[in-house]
Amino acid sequence: MRLVVGVDAGGTSSQAVLATVDGVILGRGRAGPGNPLTAGAGAAAAQVALAVRDALGEHPGALVGAATLGIAGPATVRPFGSALAALGVAGRVAVVGDVVTAFAAGSPAPSGSVLVAGTGAIAAAVRADTVVRTVDGLGWLLGDEGSGRWLGLQAVRVAVRHWSTPFAAEVAARAGVATSDELVRWAQALPLSEITDLAPLVCAAARASDRFAASIVREAVAHLVRTLDDLPAEGPVVLAGGLLVGDTPVREGVLDALHRRGVQPSTARDPAAGAAWLAARPLSPLTSAALHAALGL
Questions:
Q1: Residue ranges of the chain with pLDDT lower than 50?
Q2: 89-97 and 64-71 as β-strands: parallel, antiparallel, unpaired?
Q3: Which fold has domain 3-105+270-294?
């Protein structure tokens, strides 16, 4: 068998897929953070190698003809190539942006756009496996509008201004505070991961028709659609990231807005398999579209 590996190397965890060049997935693996920006190059490479070893499963020592890694931010191939070579990855190791693998996970088209809303938010135009333009992705202080962290920040801002409401009580309980002054101090300490963790609370409250949460979600949808509008790109649109892949009111709002324009976006549900598709495509006897379908994308 001719084998390839695809990896989605994130800041929280790394997901790996082992597949044949005919699009048959043979194994999946998971390990810790594989993003050099958050974990450091050596530690990130070690975690990616652990995820790949896990994916190899019943095929230890198998020769892998190519590997593609999707990573956010700048990353060099060298530390990853060395770590994967020890596992039998004998062919080319490529590192691409995670928005490229997200687009690949949603469409086999050579070009198009991807809108991502997870912890952060970004829209990117992709052409020939390369990001040619982005909008937003500026981080929580300057942008990432409509993202999970943005939702959490808005929740805290609304809570301190409307302290006597049930919504504020939910936010305060999640933050572990009893007064608005305590919530202000809690927020000013910048517990960013905990602030981001408020996003599901906002989504659940919006589903329950809380007017404050519903307003935050509507604003998030407007920001995300505007971000995509600022990215003129031809081709299909792919939605990616937890808020736009999962069953959330943010996804519903974005889909509704795009459908009213006649746009039918696809969804990136498996970026690691998208990375495997990128790795397998030059080696496969199948067409790009057929290989994409065979991988369940």
A1: none
A2: parallel
A3: Nucleotidyltransferase; domain 5 (3.30.420)
